[in-house]
Amino acid sequence: MSLLIRNARIASEDSTSLRDGDVLVEGGIICSIGTGLSAPEGAKVIDAKGRLLMPAMFDAHVHFREPGQEAKETIATGTEAAINGGITGVVMMPNTKPAIDSAPVVRMVLDSAAKNSRIPVYTSGCITKDRAGKELAGIDGMRGLGVKMLTDDGDSVADPAVLLRAMQYATEFGMFFASHCEVPELAGPRALNEGVVSYRLGIKGTPAAAEEIIIDRDIRLAHAAGAHIHIQHVSSKVGMETIRWWKQRGDVKVTAEVAPHHLLFTEEDIGDFDTHYKMNPPLRTKADTEALLQGLIEGVFDLIATDHAPHTPFEKSQDFVSAPNGITGLETALVSLYHYFVATGKFGWDLVVKRYSAEPRRMMGLEPVPVEEGKPADFILFDTEAETTFSLDFMRSKSRNTPFLDKTLKGRVDLVVLGDQVLLER
Amino acid sequence: MPRKDLLDIVSLEREEIDCLLDQAVPFKELFTRSVKKVPALKGKSVLTLFYEPSTRTLSSFEVAANRLSADVTNFAVAQSSIVKGESVRETVETLQAMRTDYIIVRHSRSGLPSTIARMTKASVINAGDGAHAHPTQALLDAFTIKEKFPDPTGKRVLIVGDILHSRVARSTSTILKKLGLEVAYLGPGSLVPKVGPENVLRFTNYEEAMKWKPDIVYLLRVQMERQDVQYFPSLREYHRLYGVTEERLRRIDGEGLYIMHPGPVNRGVELCDGVLDYSRSLINDQVENGIAVRMAVLYWLKPGGEVVG
Ligand SMILES: [Zn+2]
What we know:
- The complex is a heterodimer of chains A (426) and B (309).
- Chain A is of the alpha/beta class and 426 residues long.
- Chain A is 29% helix and 23% strand.
- In chain A, the strands form three sheets. In chain A, strands 1, 2, 3, 4, 5, 14, 15 and 16 form an eight-stranded mixed β-sheet that branches.
- In chain A, strand 1 and strand 2 (15-26) form a beta hairpin.
- The two termini of chain A are 19 Å apart.
- With 309 residues, chain B is α/β, with parallel strands linked by helices.
- Chain B has helices at residues 14-30, 55-67, 85-97, 112-119, 135-148, 167-178, 206-211, 235-242, 246-254, 283-300; strands at 45-50, 71-74, 102-107, 123-129, 156-160, 182-186, 201-203, 216-219, 258-260.
- In chain B, the strands form two sheets. Chain B has a five-stranded parallel β-sheet with strand order 7-6-5-8-9. Chain B has a four-stranded parallel β-sheet with strand order 2-1-3-4, sandwiched between helices.
- Chains A and B meet through helix 5 of A and helix 3 and helix 4 of B.
- Zinc ion binds at residues 93, 153-154, 180, 232-233, 307 of chain A.
C-alpha cells in the first residue's frame, strides 16, 4: 500500500514546534517527507490540512482481563479500544485469572494476541506465583517468551525479602520490576484517599503514606539489588518527590509513570459515592494533582500510562465500597491530555510524544517510532479542531466505566496507521 | 422542589431543614391528644429494611409511619448483609414489585442507601449507613436543641467521643453548623480525624474543651464493634479521659450545661450513673422528638422520582 498524507503538522519528542509537510508511506515505511510530494500510482491520498501527524501512542499499563474475566474485556476488544485512542502497542498487566505467572499462561496470552489483535501486545509477568507474594513465579520461562517487566500489579509484594531476592535473581536476566505501591495494612477497603472526602462519606480511606512507604521501600531494594525499578501510577505529591530524590542521587535505575486520571481528577469528584471515580491508588487532593502535573513537566515521570481497568456496568453499579477499583482509559487518554493540557498550554505535543509514545517503548526495549524518513509507519492523525463524544457507540472497550462517558472533549483521533495497514480512519 | 429521598444532611438547604423542623412541631403536639393518628399517608406503604439491628430507630420509624396511617412492613432481611450489587438490585426489584412508596434502610455499608435510591422510584430514607450519615438523628437533635434554644445561633455544642466512626457526629455537626451553631470535637487523637469538616474546633482534653464554654455536651456512643483495630487502650482509660465522670458531671451541672446522647448509653463509659437523674439531660427528649421528626420527614418526601441506575 502507498499512502500520501498531505499538509500535515508533524509532532516529535525533540521539538516544541511542529513541522509542516507531506508524508509518503510505501511498504509500511516512511519513505519521504517533504513539500509538494506527488502521489504514486494507486496511492491513498489524505489531505491532513492542518491536522497533527504524530507517532502512535504506547501504553505500558493495561488490564485486558484475559484469561479469566472476559466479560470485562478481551485482548480483542482491549486492543480495538487502544486503536480507537491512537495507541498501537500495549503492555498487559498479569493480574488475570489465572495470573500470568509462568510460561504456559504467557503463551496463552501471546497466542490470543497473535490471533485477535491488530497491534503488538506485550505482557508483563508476575514476580510471585499467583501474585501471592510468597514463591517466585516462573521467571526464566516467561523471559524465554519475551517478558521483560515483572510486577504483581494490583498489590505490592508485601515481604521485602521476597522482592529483594526476586530482584537479585531476575536482574541477571535483563528483566526489570514494576511496583504497585501500597501497604495493605494502611489501605483500608482501597476505595478512596484518606482525607476530607473519606471523612464525609464515612469510609475508611487509604492515606497517601500507604503508597509513599512502598515507593521508597522498593526503590531502596532496587538500589540494594542493582535492579531497574519502575514505579506505577503514582498518585501522591510526596511519592513524586521521593522518586525525584532518588533520581537525583543517580545511583539506582528508577523510572515512573503517572496516569491521566491522577492528573485530572481529585477525591472531590467522587461526590455522592460515584464509583466511576473509584480507583487504586485513589484520587487524592488538588495539591497532589498539581504536583503530579509539575512532576510530569519536569520529567520526574518518564511516562504516561492509563492503568486501563475495565469493569462491567453491573460491577460498577454496586455500592461504593463493593464496586471494583479502576476506570477504562485507552480511548480517552490522548484526547483528554490534549483537551486539558495541550490546548490550555500546560505542556506541548513534544511532551505527549515523549512520555506517551517514545519513553514507554524505550522502557520495553523497543525503538521509538518518530515520523522520520526510513522509519516504520506507526503514527496517527489528530484533529485539534474536532471533538470527541465518548458515547456508548464510540467506545470499543467491552466496558464503559469511565468518568468521561457521554462527555465531549476537544480533539479527535482521525487516523491510525501501523506498517502498511490503516487501522482506523474517521 | 420536593425531594424523593433523604440520604444525608449535607445536601439539604437551610430552608428545607427549617421546613422539616417546623413541620415536626404540630406532629409533636399530636402526641398529647387521645387520638394520635392523622390520615396523611393513608394507603401508602412504608417498608423498613434494617440490616443492622436497632430496636430504637426501627420502632421510632414504625411509630412515626403508623401515626401517619401508612401501612408499615418490616422486610425481613437475612442476617448476612447485602453488599454485592446483585443482591441489592434483587432486593430493590422485589420491593418495587410490592409497590412500596417508602423504603427506610439501615446498613453498615456507607453509601448503600444512595445506591438503592438510584435504583428505585420509592422514597429512600437513610436510617443510618456505616459511618456516613444518619439524617433523621441530626434532625431530631436539631429539633431538641431548638426546643431549649429557640434561636440557637451562636450556641456551642461539644461533641465527645468516636468522631471517626460516628455517622451521628457527621450528620449532627453538619446540621448544627447549617443552623448557625458552633461545634467542637473532643476525643482521642486516633478517633478525631484531623481533616474533618472545616470550622470545627478540635480538643484533646476536657479542660481545654470546657474553657471553650459549650452550652451542650453531646456524648457519642463508643462503638466497639465498629473498630477494626484498637483505637484506645481500654474502656476504663476512655472513661477517665473522655467520659462524663461524677466529677465532670458536677462541673457540667454547675455551669448549667445540657447533655445529649443518641443512645443507647454505655453506662460507665461515656457517662457515669449519675447522669440518669441529671435534670438537664435531653436524652429522653431526643427519643420522643425522633418520632415527630420522622413523621415530618415521611410527610415531606415525595415518592415517584426518576430511576437513574
Ligand atoms: Zn494497576
